[in-house]
Amino acid sequence: xxxxxxxxxxxxxxxxxxxxxxxxxxxxxxxxxxxxxxxxxxxxxxxxxxxxxxxxxxxxxxxxxxxxxxxxxxxxxxxxxxxxxxxxxxxxxxxxxxxxxxxxxxxxxxxxxxxxxxxxxxxxxxxxxxxxxxxxxxxxxxxx
Length: 144
Known about the structure:
Elements: E1 2-7, E2 10-15, E3 20-29, H1 31-48, E4 52-65, H2 67-78, E5 84-90, H3 94-110, E6 115-120, H4 123-142
Helix pairs in contact: 1-2
């Protein structure tokens, strides 16, 4: 399985076998929790010398996030180093998935292309998308 960290009511799981970081959001994500989440992922990337982070968010039991959490995450992600982030969210409503996909396109432009994200219906779709991104990232890394 790998390492697991509890952040408030939420869980962050580092899957050694897949290279995926799983964030299980239970209830509302607050500002301090959002900062802890981003810092934990950054620390993991530093520890493993990762050039890319593959994050899957389980949104099935989520009640969203506070304004403070959104601001904290956008500020902290904005200060990220030279690490590409591939993020797949699943379990949200169709309307929220549509909004997430639109917002993340804008975030990708603002991050200089370091953030690639999608929102899908199921965990299976999220894992398949992340596996595809991992393969594409490896291929690009081997042939810059």
